[in-house]
Specification:
SDR_fam; 7 strands; NAD(P)-dependent dehydrogenase (Short-subunit alcohol dehydrogenase family); 7-stranded parallel β-sheet; Rossmann fold
């Protein structure tokens, strides 16, 4: 029996990147996964990328789980309410795991621009996309989980602390998620529900591969443009991190903590889908003096 056979999961923001990798690896572990996002076949989001939630759901099923695509804009409360009502109805009130991976701030981030010169509307949009959406989704997830007095909420972010990340609005969005987990864990702990934040290392997402003009088959060629890329990880690595955590009967002991894909790899022993075992934490220590 697979470790997550019979478990019900929601991955919010499963269209591409870490969200897709997480959804698929939960499928590999046997879970039923609701895959949500804005991009569907024939109707891409404003990011205008080719990936869709239907593609992700089919990958979940191909890997051994059951993928269910549901188009949802997680900044729209009524759409999120409808999503959770559907899960409640179809799964008889059961929801074991929610992963918040909503981001969508790529086009709004103005790197190397001080906040007073940065577009304020773009900066506020980043908070709506990457913080408000997480709050709305976790609000409804908690309501379902509290009824069952069990569950795990995983907030995907960038980094494990509150340090500056190169842009004020980006930093605020990513560190706010960590603070959200700290507070949620305090209020959810009495109900046996855990909440953690989780970061990948240098993520080899579809968008990043396109940026470097490579594919997964020749991704190492991009190291000539950026040596750090040699230490990158596929989205499936953080996917196996979430799957391992969700299958751990002692996962509650980690509630409120900021976790990393490489740290959980050390603890649980999983590898990336390509057989590598990247460790961005160790690598970053060697280059920290450069920044």
């Amino acid at each position: 029996m697979k470790a997550l056979e019979g478990k019900i999961a929601l991955v919010a923001g499963a269209t591409r990147g870490a969200g897709r990798g997480i959804a698929v690896m939960l499928g590999e572990a046997g879970a039923t996964v609701y895959c949500t996002g804005r991009s569907t076949r024939g109707a891409p989001s404003d990011l205008n990328r080719p990936e869709t939630i239907e593609d992700t759901a089919e990958m979940v099923t191909a890997y051994g789980g059951r993928g269910i695509p549901v188009q949802t804009d997680h900044t729209v409360i009524s759409e999120v309410e409808s999503l959770f009502a559907r899960i409640d109805r179809e799964q008889q009130g059961r929801l074991d795991l929610v992963v918040n991976d909503i981001w969508g701030g790529e086009k709004w981030t103005e790197w190397n621009t001080p906040f007073w010169k940065h577009s304020l509307s773009n900066g506020l949009m980043m908070q709506e996309r990457a913080v408000h959406s997480h709050m709305i989704t976790s609000f409804h997830a908690a309501r379902m989980m509290v009824k069952n007095r069990s569950g795990l909420i995983v907030e995907i972010t960038d980094g494990t602390d509150y340090s500056y990340r190169g842009n004020l609005y980006y930093t605020l969005a990513k560190s706010s998620v960590i603070n959200l987990v700290t507070s949620m864990s305090e209020e959810l702990s009495p109900y046996n529900i855990s909440a953690v934040s989780l970061t990948p290392g240098f993520l080899r997402s579809e968008e990043m591969l396109d940026h470097f003009g490579v594919s997964e088959s020749n991704w190492q060629d991009a190291a000539a443009k950026d040596s750090h890329f040699a230490q990158s990880e596929t989205p499936f690595f953080i996917g196996r991190a979430v799957a391992s955590l969700a299958a751990d009967p002692k996962a509650f002991s980690k509630t409120g903590r900021s976790l990393s894909s490489w740290g959980l790899s050390e603890e649980y022993g999983f590898k990336d889908i390509d057989g590598r075992k990247p460790h961005w934490g160790n690598y970053y220590k060697t280059i920290k003096h450069m920044y």
